[in-house]
Amino acid sequence: MLIQTASALWLIAALAAPEPPAQAQQYQAPKARRHFVSVSYERQFVQPYGFSKHPLSELLGQPVNEVHLQNFQYETQDQKTQVTVLEYGKRASAIGATLYPFGSSQGATLAIRGSIESLPDIRVAFTGPAPSPTYQLTNGRAMDIGAGVDMSDRAPGFGLGAHAFVIGGIGTAQTDQLDGRRYFIEGGGGVSSGPFGVDVAFKYSVNRFSEPVSHSVHMIPISVRASLTF
User: Fold this and answer.
1) CATH code of domain 35-229
2) Each residue's pLDDT tens digit, 56-95
3) Largest Cα–Cα distance of the chain, in whole Å?
4) Over pLDDT 70: what percentage of the chain?
5) What is the pLDDT of residues 7-22, one digit of tens each?
6) Dihedral sign, CA of 8, 13, 16, 17?
7) What Rg, from alpha-carbon coordinates, does the chain have?
8) Rounded CA gap, 177 and 164, in Å?
9) Are 180 and 208 in contact (CB under 8 A)?
10) Where are the domains of the chain?
11) CA-closest candidate to residue 166, choices 191, 192, 201, 193
């Protein structure tokens, strides 16, 4: 009788006991979909780099020094040639497209970028021995192609995401006076919401020409870029 009573109590307790809670499912945040193409428009503020050497020293065949409190800006080391910078434009613009062959969503991915950008006008006058009385690059345009790495952390929907990139490549430079080749490296980053984005980018470009003597013009465009990515 005691055993039967104990068995009945055990059965009742087992039936009345609550079931153990199901194992909690691990939460997974939704991921942003992959993007494959980005088109952009940008405004550039262009800074010269090493202008006394590239192109002035290369054009004049000797070191050139910057001067102050004169009606000219540079002078050759032998003081026989003075250089007056009549114009060096600071503003430029560009359009471009970036292709992500493996998609861009989270982490690093390959980026291939092409762009067409304007080049600032440059006009210089020489007084003294020089290959020509003036040096001009006007109505310039550059066409670039490059590849690099894009590191992204895009958000789903219209959430706030971010990305950073570094790209290097080659291109051509065409002006009213000279045509040449160029190479560049570019880096930057920005934020995005849905397909819309805003970037800040820094580019270092070397434009090489062969006339009237072999020389180069170095520029650093600083860009504010609006993009549409899909």
Assistant:
1) 2.40.160.20
2) 999 999 999 999 999 999 999 999 999 999 999 999 999 9
3) 127
4) 87
5) 554 544 455 555 555 5
6) negative
7) 31
8) 37
9) yes
10) 35-229
11) 201
